[in-house]
Structures are given as C-alpha cells and as structure tokens.
Model the fold of this input.
Amino acid sequence: MKLFFCLFITAALAACAPVKPIKEASLPPLSSVAANIKSGMDVNALNKALQGRQPDLKYSLPDGSIWEVSERINIAENHSVNANNLLIKFNKDGVVSESSYSFCFLPDQETVLGSSPATRCYQKHSFPFNKQVTYDAIKRLLIISHYQVDHSDAASELISATGTQNVPEDEDKMMFIKLSIVFSVIDTNTTEVIMSATFNVSEKQETWVQAGFAGVTLPIPLPFQKKEEWIGTGIVPPKFYMDFYDALSKLIASEYLPYKPIKQTLKTNTPAPVVNVPAVIPPPKAPVEADRFSTFTFSPQTPKATQNPESLDLNLEGPIDAEKNIKKTQQAHEQPEEQETEEEKDEENEDPFANLGGKPIDSK
Done:
C-alpha cells in the first residue's frame, strides 16, 4: 500500500514538480547556518554565512526580496523525512531585514490523532506572501493538477476540491482525493495555510454471468460485467502535504513573484549639498504705539518766571476788584513788555526814601 500511494503522489502533482532539496555531505547543517544570519547583512556577507548553500527558491516583493533555503534529511530506518526551512527577507535597500527558521518531522504514515507529533506541523505551512497571492496560487495549482474546485471563498478563507487519479501501473484502480484548505492572514505579508486530505480507492471488478433454462443451469460465457467497489480509504500520508506545499511555493516563484536581482543601495555619510537659498527680507513691521502707562515717568516742571509786580500798573488806592484795575491787569498779561525808557530807568535808580525827609518810615 505504501508503494502504491507513493506512485500516486508522483503523478498527482506532475504539473508542478516539487522543489528538489539540496543536501551534500560537505555542507553544514541548516540549523547551524541559520544562527549566523544577522539583520543588516548584504548579499556578499550573506553568501559567506550560508557556507556554500544556495537558495532553492527566490521571490521578489514590491518592497524587497525573499530567499528560501530547504533541507530534507531522509531517515531510511522508518522512511521518514526531517524537513528544515530557512526564509531570508531583504528590504528595499538590498540588506537582510529578518530571517526565520522552521523544522518539521514528516513520518512515513499519517500519525494517529492525539499521538506524537501532536502539532501535525506537516499539515500547515506559512508563506511569506499576502493573502491574495496565496489564495490565487492555491486555486491555480489545484486546477492544473486536475482537481475540481468545489468551493472557493476568499471571505470565508476556505477552499475545497476533489480529484481523481489513475493508479500508476494498474488501470483497474482509481483514487479519489478530497481536499479542504483553510488559509488565514497572520500579518500583512504572511499567510498560513492548513490542509486536510483524505483518499478513497476503487477497483473495477469482473463477474461471471450464468444462464439457466428448464431447471438446468449451465455456465455460458457472456461479456464480463464490471463494477466499481471501494477497496480502501484513509488519510493521505504526510509526504503528500510536503509535495503540495513545495509545488505551491514553486508556482508562486515562477508565475506570481518572479525574482529580480537584488540591487543594493550603499548608504554613505556624505554631507548633503548646500543649496543657496535667497534671503527672505521680512516686511517692515507696523509702528506699535507705546504703552503710555508703562513709559510714563514723573519729571519736575520748571516754574514760569514771575512777572515783576512793579511793572503792573495797579491802582491800589481803589478797590482791588475795580474794573479799571482788572482791565489794566489783563492788558499787562496780554501785551508784551515794552522796553524801559531812560527816564524810567533814572526814576528807578533814585533813592526811594528821599521823600521821607529823615522821618521814620512809619510816621504820618
């Protein structure tokens, strides 16, 4: 039965040949190489860190590139496979932005539910692409592999398909496979695919037809009648999943995200060129009225010179509020002072006590 199903797997995915793993005795294990990959490496430094390993698949994304390195170790004792996978992502500048390493053990036969490995890692695979690319590639792979897509819905993230395949070297046997595929978005550029596959085998069997008459039955050879009978059913072995995911990766690399050589952008510390920008003269500011309260100061005022009382022609003999005196006073303030004549100057120089005649100043 094992040989029978292995032959079927080879024919089921003939349209997309699986990736051939690269493993030589001189190469170090992929697990040890993965530990040497660091962020910021350029292509030359990365090739040195890979120590002779070459990527099996390459992809070009809108904002970078991806290298995929695979390693498959066959264990002859139990016909199982140890699958190792290393993804290396480059940014738009052509240097390593991140890397991820995964390992999965693929037994020869489907593991019983609940037994080791409980995670069933071979049933799921994370692709470093967005949801739309992965969804379209799965449908295309199923169609070119002679599967009938029964249900496909991007909103529900579910695809179901059935396929029939002739069994190699046995034309009387037919195999029916039922696939259920769920894909979900992990982040913007990562989609996880989980698949469950079952199979049924039918065989065309021949029967003899006998004819009887008059109570006597004689074997008379007639054309054989053929009918189909189910002779086996079960869950497909893990290698079927590995071949399916390998074929899906190869399809994406060849038709959806074809690889373009990485162009590395070297960053230098050269100063930025000086650009002569004409000076911008600011417009004149409008005069601002000073705050008269903040700038107010107290300053002593110089008193005006008082006018000589003798220059006023006042009639002190009459009442002080006489009309004549008031008019003279106003005229004295309004008219400018006239220059004194020489006679007035002489009168001022005379002795003011000459008219007293030697009498006391307070005598009558």
Q: What stands out?
A: Residues 2-256 form one domain. The mean pLDDT is 74. The first strand starts at residue 57 and ends at 61.
